[in-house]
Amino acid sequence: MTVESDLDSDAVKPASGLTGSVPVIDIGDLADGVGESGVRSIDEIAEAARTWGFFQVVNHGVPGSLMEATRAQMKRFFDLPVEEKELILRTRENPWGYYNNELTKNRRDKKEVFDFTSEGIDPIYDAENRWPAFDPKFRSVMCEFRDACTALSLQLLESFCHGLDLPANFLNSYFDPYHTGFVRLNYYPVKDPLDGRTNRLSAGPAGLGVHHHSDAGALTVLLQDGVGGLQVHRDGFWHDIQPVDGAFVINTGDMMQVWSNDIYQAAIHRVVAMNERDRYSIPFFYNPAAGTPVSPLPSVVTNETPARYHTINWSEFRGQRTDGDYADYGPEVQISQYRVERETP
User: Fold this and answer.
1) Which of 16, 21, 196, 281 is buried most, with the most CB atoms less than 10 Å from its CB?
2) E strands of the chain, at which residues?
């Protein structure tokens, strides 16, 4: 899944195309933990991670009432006057809060976001969450949703390990004592949020809702609404990820691709610009603990398939990626920059 400069010009594949569609996996058999009863789910998750880098899960255990409460609070936040939202505007030093001028690969996205992480001082940026004051329930609902996504992510992480013939808890220590995951509230409005406003950091007109990219961390758990617009790139085409009621969309991230030595794919994806209806989505990015060194795991490195990546310091990688989201500070960091160069025989 190599990123090409003209990737966004590739055609969208109809849902009935021969390449199939992103699988929907029932993970109800993982409710009691990853074990013999979950072999079917584990096999399907591993296959989807190898081929698509994307899949959807149902019967995941997160209450529908919590999903709906989170959506409702998100919409209430984005409905606030922009002046009130900008009271908690993010900075280069503190990425937690509201932003309406984000870049992906140095191109401005047509969206508004609100980011928050675990409570307390985060270990990468030495900064704290900043919460809006409009309703104290906003914070409590968001934290409950974050914790539910964390539990689901750990379950999926163990499935990924099983898919690599590793013990279920093999990667758990890479997320201890505290993971650096975070939740993002995404609002993709029909109207550009910067229309009629001046902003010294603007990188020009917005194109897509989010330009093509891969996620930096281990895996992403996404709750999308019924509007659609998320697309994954595969086999030279863009494929729509159709909303499924009650499902989470899961995708592998850059660190999982490195750990698996390219067995699992950190898929390239994007969100098209909204032209008729506003769209909302809520991704949870499950990320390793600060300072974690990430390199191909010993079990996937052999004489026939040597390590394809140098060791990546997660905190440094994440910090550089966040800088690129905030403003144009040069080329956005990619795992391709850590690839081991080998002589051609």
Assistant:
1) 281
2) 12-13, 24-26, 54-58, 97-99, 103-104, 107-108, 112-117, 182-188, 210-213, 219-224, 230-234, 237-240, 248-252, 269-271, 279-286, 293-294, 312-313
CA 227, 232, 235, 238 torsion: positive or negative? positive
CATH classification code of 23-331:
2.60.120.330
Q: What is the value of pTM for the model shown? A: 0.94
pLDDT of residue 173: 95
Q: What pLDDT was estimated at residue 34?
A: 61
* Residue 44 CB neighbours (<10 A): 19
Could you give the C-alpha distances from 303 to 121, 249, 272, 298, 331, in angstroms and in order? 43, 35, 42, 11, 33
The 10s digit of each residue's pLDDT in 42-72 is 999 999 999 999 999 999 999 999 999 999 9
What is the pLDDT, as a whole number, of residue 195? 86
More confident residue, 36 or 81: 81
Q: What is the residue extent of each domain of the chain?
A: 23-331
